[in-house]
Design brief:
538 residues, mainly alpha, disordered C terminus, metallopeptidase activity, CPBP family intramembrane metalloprotease, transmembrane, transmembrane helix
């Protein structure tokens, strides 16, 4: 009982000092001090820095008194906070944590519901952007602020709790205290969430630098995004895209916390994130300049061929697919010293399984086209019709070439690269879901319905890849899915009883084929060659 009373007394003294300084300075000195108050009001980062500096002096006085009382048992602020040097991978991990928490925050507060019902978030940022110099914002809010807050709340208060309480109790209590000290209710909720992250980082990495780096990076992202106009530009992005980005950031925050908690998975998780960034970046650097620059604004404007190309939209993917695969091949060689073909695992599968996968792919394609003909979908979701028209207006030779090259390209990128990278550190179901979401973002700009469509495709393609340990399984499946699209579209079928029956039969058929293929998968095949991840020096 005595140890809890001692701890409570120390917490009240230290926290009371912090709140006393904040109250006296913010509520009495600044509003009633003329020029000083006006200067502080127009320079919030300096205001915060002065308040933290005064509190720091008083805390140092308290610790000098503790030194006289405790004598040999005394522990200095620096020793208590543990300014231990972080390893390189831990610096990378905490920096990534700051990036993902910063992105999560700026995307979340721009979701319409949150922006309309909780204006405190944007008002909070606007308030702290009041400064005569942006440099002072960076110094005050991205350096001094994190340094003081982490030493005070994690280095001192959290440590005092850990010496007397179980970890979970101390973690939650310091989070509540940290949240209570924030300026408004909305920020208090976010602060509790952040304090839990900071507490776990500090407890596992045993260095106050871990939370200082995370907080500094997060604040930098928030205030730089506001200064550059990025934060305001996010208001024009649809809510479902903002929510997806928020969800992805939350997933990676959880992955990083898991990596911190389980030391043996840290390097693997960092490599996974590094490789995911590598391949999505390479994709973007090839796809967008080629399709929207070279093709749409160059080749498509050649008068001699633009009419033909207009009727064969997908022809542009043929040179792109070849170019992209060449780039992926050399990036794989340069970065990982591996052969893309071997990494993709073009292992032979039996003729029987290939035929079954082809039949199932045909049924999947028919199923999708029948679904698109249902009045509910055709009337309420025109994007399905637009997608089908875009894919199937080409002449047959062009469409066959598209089927061959694009099926190979997509499966190499989304299964051999993206899925394999995710699978190296995540469970299968999360890897499948994330592959679908990434597919929806890169191909469909995260249109909600088309992203669901992408996730369903990713589920089956990834399961076939997982079961048969060969890239040929999803390639064959995808080839026949899109071949069925073309045939059904050319038949110009109309919705009726026959479509309903065909849809029902295909639904049952696909499920039966999936069950059969799972039970008869080639278990003797070797595991696919996992992509060697980006090296992180220990």
């Amino acid at each position: 009982m005595k140890k809890y009373l001692t701890m409570t007394g120390e917490l009240i003294l230290l926290l009371g000092t912090f709140l006393m300084v904040a109250t006296i300075h913010n509520d009495y000195i600044v509003p009633n001090s003329g020029a000083y108050g006006n200067f502080m009001f127009n320079n919030l980062p300096i205001w915060i820095s002065v308040m933290f500096a005064v509190t720091s002096v008083l805390v140092l006085v308290i610790f000098q008194i503790r030194r006289l009382v405790l004598k040999d048992r005394y522990e200095s602020i620096a020793a208590m906070s543990r300014f231990t040097r972080l390893r390189k991978e831990d610096v990378l991990l905490t920096s990534l944590m700051g990036i993902f928490t910063g992105l999560l925050f700026i995307c979340m507060i721009k979701v319409s519901f949150i922006a309309n019902h909780f204006p405190d978030f944007n008002e909070y940022i606007d308030m702290f952007m009041r400064s005569q110099s942006f440099i002072m914002i960076i110094i005050g809010l991205c350096i001094i602020g994190p340094l003081f807050e982490e030493i005070f709340f994690r280095g001192i208060l959290f440590n005092l709790m850990l010496k007397k309480m179980p970890f979970i109790a101390a973690l939650l209590l310091q989070a509540v205290i940290y949240g209570y000290c924030q300026p408004n209710p909305s920020i208090q909720v976010i602060a509790v969430f952040l304090a839990i992250i900071y507490g776990i980082l500090y407890y596992r990495l045993q260095s106050i630098w871990s939370t200082i780096i995370t907080a500094a990076v997060m604040n930098t992202i928030i205030f730089v995004s506001k200064k550059t106009g990025l934060l305001d530009a996010l208001s024009s992005i649809p809510d479902h895209v903002l929510l997806l980005i928020t969800g992805i950031c939350l997933l990676f925050i959880i992955v990083l916390l898991k990596a911190v908690w389980h030391e043996d998975t840290k390097i693997n998780n960092l490599k996974m994130i590094g490789n995911l960034f590598l391949w999505t970046s390479v994709y973007s650097l090839v796809y967008y300049p080629f399709i929207f620059g070279v093709w749409n604004n160059g080749v498509m404007r050649i008068s001699a061929i633009n009419q033909w190309l207009g009727h064969n939209n997908i022809f542009g993917f043929l040179p792109y697919d070849i170019l992209a695969l060449v780039v992926y091949y050399f990036v794989m060689k340069k970065v990982h010293k591996q052969n893309l073909i071997k990494v993709s695992n073009f292992t032979r599968i039996s003729v029987k399984n290939g035929v079954l996968i082809a039949i199932m792919g045909t049924m999947m394609g028919v199923w999708v086209q029948c679904l698109f003909l249902f009045p509910y979908f055709s009337q309420n979701f025109p994007q399905f019709e637009q997608l089908t028209v875009y894919l199937t207006t080409a002449i047959l030779p062009v469409y066959i070439a598209f089927l061959v090259y694009h099926s190979i390209y997509k499966e190499i990128f989304f299964r051999a690269l993206v899925y394999n990278v995710l699978r190296s550190a995540l469970p299968m179901w999360i890897s499948v879901l994330m592959t679908g979401i990434i597919y929806g973002g890169l191909f469909f700009n995260w249109d909600p319905l088309l992203t669901v469509y992408a996730c369903l495709g990713a589920l089956i393609f990834s399961l076939l890849f997982e079961w048969y340990k060969s890239i040929w399984a999803p390639i064959i499946n995808e080839f026949f899915v899109f071949a069925a699209y073309y045939v059904v579209r050319k038949l110009e079928l109309a919705y009726g009883r026959g479509i309903v029956w065909t849809f029902t039969i295909c639904t049952i058929g696909v499920l039966c084929f999936m069950i059969y293929l799972w039970k008869n998968r080639d278990t003797e095949r070797k595991q696919p060659v996992a992509v060697e991840q980006v090296k992180v020096s220990a």
